[in-house]
Amino acid sequence: MPHGYAWKYFPDLHDFQYTADIHWPGQLGQVDWIDGIILVEDWLLTRIGSQYQRWAWNTATEVYDISVAFKYDKHRTLFLLAYS
What we know:
Structural class: alpha+beta
């Protein structure tokens, strides 16, 4: 059974204009996408704030990317600095 986070990783309808795509985080050779979601979501909740108030999952342009939309550009920049 997938961890609770996995069920929440769906692109959301949102009005956030600042988006950022990153490659799935993880160790070399790791294929468990759920660990990547848990890592990113925990980071977002701790450093950016509440989902739907400051950020939301977005539709990625590449299959192996995670996309996040942000209410504020400063949060998008912080996210990219942490994961790029």
